[in-house]
Amino acid sequence: MKKTIKDYDLSSKKVIIRCDLNVPMQDGKITDETRIKASLKTINYALDHKAKVIILSHLGKIKTEEDKENNSLYPVSVRLSELLGQEVIFSKETHGPELETKVANLKDGDVLLVENTRFEDLDNKKESSCDPELSKYWANLGDIFINDAYGTCHRAHASNVGVAKLLPNGIGFLVEEEINKLDEIINEDTHPYIVVMGGKKVSDKIKLIENIIPKCDKLIIGGAMAYTFLKALGNNIGGSIYEEDSLSYCKNLVAKYPNKIILPVDTKVSSSLDSPTYIVKEVGTFTDSDIGFDIGTKTIKKFQDCLEGAKRVIINGPMGVFESPLYQEGTKAIYSYLTTHNIKTLIGGGDSAASVKQLGFDGKFYHISTGGGATLEYLEGKDLPGISVINNEE
Predict the structure, then answer these.
(1) What is the pLDDT of residue 201?
(2) What residues in the chain have per-residue pLDDT under 70?
(3) DSSP code per residue over 260-306
(4) 201 tagged catalytic
(5) Is the distance from CB of 33 to CB of 79 less than 8 angstroms?
(6) Which residue among the candidates 349, 350, 371, 372 is catalytic per the annotation?
C-alpha cells in the first residue's frame, strides 16, 4: 500500500499538492469544473490540518509563447477560491522571486496556486522531461509532496515524479480512490466479467486487449474500432473508419477467441456525419458510400443479452458518435441496461466519461475514472510512474 496524505502531520508544513486542474476553457471561461471539484477533498483535508498548501497543475499543451495566453490557471484560481470559500493566492511565475516570496509569506491554512507547470516546457521541455533542476527547485518550496493528479500519473514529469523523489510523499484521496476502485474490479473473482470497448483505434487498445482478454468472459466491441474487425472478417464497411495496419491483428484475434469477441450485426449508416438522416443496415449489406456512426437495434439487443447476469463490467469507449443526437442511442442503451440492472461497472475515463456526463448517467455507476490515459495504461498492466514513485507504507 502506498502512503497517503493521512500518514503525515501536516500542521504548519508547506504541502505541495499536484492536482489535475486541466479543465476545458473557452474564451477564458471554464466550461467543465469536474476536475476542480475532484481536487477539493484533498485540499480541504490539508487545510483542516493547518497546512500551508502549494498547488501545482498543468493546463493544456504549451508549445509556443502564444499558447500561454489561453492556458493560464488564473481563471481556475478564481473558481477554486469560490469553491473553497477563501482566497487562493496566485503566482504568475512558475519560478522566480515572486513565487518564492509568496511561498515564504504563507500562513497556516493559506492556499497558493502556481501558474501552469507546462509553461516550463518552453525551456527545453523541463516539465515534461522531468528536468532534475526544475524538480529540485519546486521540491525546495515544500516539506511534503502529495500526488492527487490521477490524470497525469502515467507521465513522469517534474511536477509529479521529479518532486516526489525529493520529498516525503503520499497520494491524495482522488488517486487513492481511483487505484482502489480499479484494483477491486480487476482483481475481484466474480463472473461473468465483461469488457466493452469502443472508440476509434484498435491500435490504441492492443495492449489493453492482450492483457484483459484472457481474463474476461466476453469482449464486446462497438464504436469505430468495430469496423476494423468487420473488414478483417471480409465485410464491406463502405466509407467507415478503419485501420489498415490492424486488419491482420483483428482477424487473428477473432480466430483465437471466437467465442469471446462479440461484434455488431447491424449499424446506423449515412453518407456523412452532417446528414440529417440515417438508415439501419445489417453487417454485410453496406454500399461503398455507407459510413457507420452507431450500433443498430439488433446489435443493442445482442450486446444487452451478453451483459445479462454480468457481475462486473469495464467500459472503455462509446458505441458511436454520442456527441450527435442521431447517434447516441447505442451508448445510451448500454448505459441504461447496466444501471437499470445494477451491474457493477467501471467507466474507463476519456470519451467514456464524457459520454456518461453528456447522456445523463453521471453518478450512476460504480466508478467513473477521471483519467483516460492513466486508466488505459493501468488496465494494460503497466506501472504508473506517478504512483510507483510514491513511498510504500512501512
Answers:
(1) 85
(2) 349
(3) TEE--SEEEEES-TT-S--EEEETT---TT-EEEEE-HHHHHHHHHH
(4) yes
(5) yes
(6) 350
CB-facing half-sphere around the CA of 206: CA atoms within 13 A: 13
Q: Which of 60, 109, 239, 373 is catalytic?
A: 373
Burial 52-91 (b: 16+ CB within 10 A, else e): bbbbbbbbbebeeeebeeebbbeebbebbbeebeeebbbb
- Burial class of residue 224 in the structure, from the number of CB atoms within 10 Å of its CB (0-12 exposed, 13-18 middle, 19+ buried): buried
Active site residue 350: yes
Helix residue ranges, H only, the chain: 34-48, 65-69, 74-84, 97-104, 132-139, 163-164, 173-187, 206-212, 225-232, 247-256, 297-307, 329-340, 350-358, 372-379, 385-388
What pLDDT is stored for residue 354 in this prediction? 87
35 counts as catalytic = yes
How many angstroms separate the CA atoms of 101 and 337, rounded?
55
Determine which one of 13, 14, 35, 344 is catalytic: 35
From CA 356, how far away is CA 317, in angstroms rounded? 11
Select from 101, 79, 92, 84 the least CA-distant residue to 21: 79
Alpha carbon separation from 86 to 18, 44, 53, 77, 172 (Å, rounded): 19, 11, 13, 11, 21
Fold matches, 5-173 and 181-379:
yes
Which one, of 115, 110, 109, 57, lies nearest residue 90 by Cα? 115
* Residues in contact with 232: Cβ distance below 8 Å, sequence separation at least 6, in sequence order: 246, 247, 248, 250, 251, 254
Contact present, 45 and 8 (Cβ < 8 Å): no
Q: Show me where the domains of the chain are located.
A: 5-173, 181-379
pLDDT digits (tens, 9 = 90+) for 240-262: 999 999 999 999 999 999 999 99
CATH for 181-379, among 3.30.70.3450, 3.40.50.1820, 3.40.50.360, 3.40.50.1260?
Answer: 3.40.50.1260
Give the DSSP letter of residue 113: E
3, 201, 207, 260: the catalytic one is 201
Residue 238 one-letter amino acid: G
Dihedral (Cα; 127, 130, 131, 134), 10-degree rounding: 60
Q: How long, in residues, is the chain?
A: 394
- Fold for the domain defined by 5-173: Rossmann fold (3.40.50)
Total-model pTM: 0.88
